[in-house]
What we know:
With about 190 residues, the chain is mostly helical.
Amino acid sequence: MITKLKYSLLILILSFFGCKKAENYSEVRRTLEQVLVDDQKFRTPVLDLAKQAPLDRKNSKIVTKIIDSLGWLGENKIGHDANLALFLAIQHADKLETMEKYLPIIKKASENGNADKKQVAYLIDRVELLNNRKQIYGTQLSFRANGKAFIENLQDSTNVNTRRKSMNLISLEDYLKKVDSSNNIRN
Length: 187
């Protein structure tokens, strides 16, 4: 009940301010910080999709209303966690159309310093794979039965680290080592 009330209040606030005229984003920040908590609630240590999917749908609705009303807000306005929530809700949206709609917006936000280039790379790769194309930056992982991470469906693997570097990503080899070491810690 309280969550629905908060959501309704946020929509009312966004409707009242209309565009980007709101200078105090504290309510938006608090809402997005809760989106971030909800985004990770049933994702770690192991994804429970049955429980996580409804939260992802709810988060997607909240975040798209915020972006449509206020644009992609940078860390300077809403802080790191709230800015991260914008990305994660789009990245974890249940509809490819949502990801595709907001991909140009996050690209532009990145150019303006309001989103991280790494996030753009992750979203591009997710969209490419969902469209049955090869990923460009190698951000989307698959896992073997033994828990070891690997990259599949990667275009031009010879030059992937150059592309990754352009998006402020670590080398593919270091990325896989990092993921495998964190998986070993959890297992």
